[in-house]
Queue: 2 jobs
Job 1
Amino acid sequence: MASVVPYPAPASAAPLLQVRGLACRRGERLLFAGLDLDLGAGEIVWLRGPNGSGKTSLLRILAGLATAAEGSRRWAGDALQRPLYLAHANALKDDLGAAESLAFLLRLAGQPADAATCATALGRVGLARQRDAAVRTLSQGQRRRVALARLAVEPSAPVWLLDEPFDALDAAGIGTLDELLAGHAARGGAAIVTSHVPLTLAAPEPITLDLASVAPRGRPAPAAAAAAVACEA
Ligand SMILES: Nc1ncnc2c1ncn2[C@@H]1O[C@H](COP(=O)(O)OP(=O)(O)OP(=O)(O)O)[C@@H](O)[C@H]1O
């Protein structure tokens, strides 16, 4: 594994992410409510739950891309420490080459995007030979690897929010992603990872968060007018 550069430690002993009383409503349906979570440095959370239970919705709320019905989330550190969110869709441009498409994603996220960085990151996910190949010519697993190459670029965010990142990966790809997660945790980072199968990561041992356990029972959905979430840096 490459040299380990630690993330800046939060000023206090506060967790990297603190969630309190979070609720999510989609249309008339309350998906979950009363969700509390403390995500500490070095922790990897396996976010599980049945189809439609709200895993993607939760990650989008945490990433600031959707609004919670109730509750609060607080990040340690300043605004520059916002999470790295990898959506289930790869968001690659079919007509661009793999390296160009990765550079586009990195630029959007404010990460380094020069040619050498992209080449190194693609090599890390086993795509050194495909770096100039048009995205449309890549297999699903190779496209997934291009998107995941963002995780091999430093500096990165201390918290990763990964929506079904193992989809379409073969055993070698799963091993590489496990290594990236383990390295991230070893640097003091943390991640929330959705998956329909248990994570294979051996260390650190993933913490399971089952959305079925925070499904609302007999609670009415919060009114639309109450749709507000307190977000503190
Ligand atoms: N834009 C939307 N408008 C209305 N309802 C939506 C929208 N997006 C998702 N939903 C609903 O919210 C619920 C939760 O969806 P979400 O994608 O968060 O679940 P999930 O746990 O990630 O599911 P899966 O395991 O299938 O990926 C689903 O019932 C879905 O139909």
Job 2
Amino acid sequence: MIIAIDGPAASGKGTLGKRLAAHYGLRHLDTGLLYRGVAHVLLSAGHPADDRVRAAAAAAALDPGRLDEDALKTQAAGEGASIVSAFPEVRAALLDVQRRFAAAPPGAVLDGRDIGTVICPDADVKIFVTASAEERARRRFLEFRARGLAVTEAEVLDDIRRRDARDTGRAVAPLRPAADARLLDTTALDVEASVAAAIALVEAARR
Ligand SMILES: Nc1ncnc2c1ncn2[C@@H]1O[C@H](COP(=O)(O)OP(=O)(O)O)[C@@H](O)[C@H]1O
Ligand SMILES: Nc1ccn([C@@H]2O[C@H](COP(=O)(O)OP(=O)(O)O)[C@@H](O)[C@H]2O)c(=O)n1
């Protein structure tokens, strides 16, 4: 079984992806880490994220097995990711690794922005997860604070809005629900209730 999870920044995609993978015995890929990894290569070498040629080279050379999640889950890497991910060459270079991951047995959960629309258009189940921007900013702010990262909730909200606008407005693989995606709004749901709702959507899709 292949489960595709898409949605805007900090909507809970990764949390649901991990939990659904554990529940159904599938592997999980957080595809945002790939784009964050590309941005991190550029930023850590002192180059701007909008250096298209370097971004394409970094994507082609990326080793998905060696991504340091802690270093990549920063605001700077997220912002950089939303810039490099708009370059078609970057997306093309990362396509195969995602499709291969999805196709390997026993199946997988992938989360990102274009899983249901581009990477796995034939996924068995597609979930588009949303929450209000304010609630997403609150959750991401708490996460950053727990990790000791210095940032305000207002900055996080700004960042989320800017990235969502870039991700929905780009020409290639924009963020949008696939026509056959099931919508899950978690604004008023805690993690456990969100997981239960997602499992119910998977079960409904399999019937
Ligand atoms: N339903 C929920 N209620 C409260 N907090 C949540 C919920 N879902 C996720 N979170 C928390 O919100 C933050 C963002 O979730 P995450 O799964 O990383 O989102 P995404 O992968 O979409 O960026 C994390 O700190 C996570 O623990
Ligand atoms: N499949 C994907 C996944 C991420 N991305 C880009 O990578 C950025 C970071 O993605 P992410 O999933 O790690 O971001 P969060 O939702 O975790 O904050 C997004 O803002 C998108 O620009 C993408 O274009 N396509």
